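Might you be able to check the backbone structure tokens below? Thank you kindly.
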Amino acid sequence: MGDNFLLFQKSQADSKQSEDLSAFVEQPSGDKAAVVFGEVEIVSDLKEKRRVLKLATFDLSQHFPKGPESKELCLLKITAKKIEWRERWEGGAKIYKPS
């Protein structure tokens, strides 16, 4: 994760393949932060993993030497229900709800 802070919290699994998720991301050198609320699915399709790995702006082979077949690689599809964004801790959050 480097200098970034990322935390996931999931709810109890239900009968669907997806689960509720909260994710908190904080900028390493400031007060900016985002909290994402939504549903998460694990994507196991190798073609999709290859596509996403190609989007990286840096070489991911040091983290995933076997590429998309690396057992350490877990690709998540997050469908956001609500995002709270903070520019700084004072002043509150801006809330975005996708339609």
Q: What stands out?
A: Residues 1-8, 12-16 have pLDDT under 50 and may be disordered. The chain is about 10% helix and 40% strand.
